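thoughts on these tokens:
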Amino acid sequence: MPLNEPISRRQMLFRLGGLAAASPLSALLQTAWAGSPNMLVDASGPETNCDIGRLTEKLIAAAGGMGRYVAKGDVVVIKPNVSWARAPQYGATTHPEVVRAVVRMCFDAGAKTVRIADHTIHDARQCFIVTGIGQIARETGAELVFPASSLMREMNLHGHRLDMWPVFTPIVEADKRINIPVAKVHSISRLTLGMKNWIGGVGGRRNALHQDIHQSITDLAHFFKPDLTIIDATRIMIENGPSGGNLSDVLIKNRLILSDDPVAADAYAASQLFQIVPQEIGYIRLAEKWGMGTTDLTRLTLQKVTL
């Protein structure tokens, strides 16, 4: 391939594979994508009868359209949070209508394949059924990827705490990664937003990841580095997170937050949805320290749109 032709993330991963032993792979990827424009979009809908699919479309349109992030022939992986076998109204998992809209827009942009992948906590089959994500996959033509042990491969994360760890390969092998977490409080990390969602991108002992959790989250977010983060705040969990289970734990917000800066996405969500100073969250503070993004939201282009 001529040097002046663009290459996909998958091709870049292949080329970098031979260099990984000498150089931290995640650092090389971060350098490769440095300088990309950073934007922040906050989309809000009506308090009642909100069409979440249309709200998602409006969000993406304000960000320049899906074609800005997905190219013809791309393999795209969508990483929702469907860790728990909970129906969407409990706010424990990513709303399926957000995922449906994103899948459709990826195909409209020319994606060859769209995959939905998550390493769930509850039984994956039950999670995909109860959350509605399995039905979305069937209806849109997306591939639903179960977290089979055969799809986990030991990789060096080159983190400050995490090194060799089993990684969910469909996520790293995709050309584009779109992270779609749900906004919740968390009993250990205080909040679970975009960067923490990458705990579902790996296998191994989950309880080990929850020790020194802020550094573990930062290491994983540094490794996966999504092309786009869309925080689902159509419903947010304000008590008993991350699993919840009572409607009294949930507030209906009908908001979506998008950014190509994962630190900014989490910082904005922490302050706007939970009224928490971003630097009070350990992994946000660490991620900014390691140069993964910024909490200075004046450095991003902020757009607010309403449905």
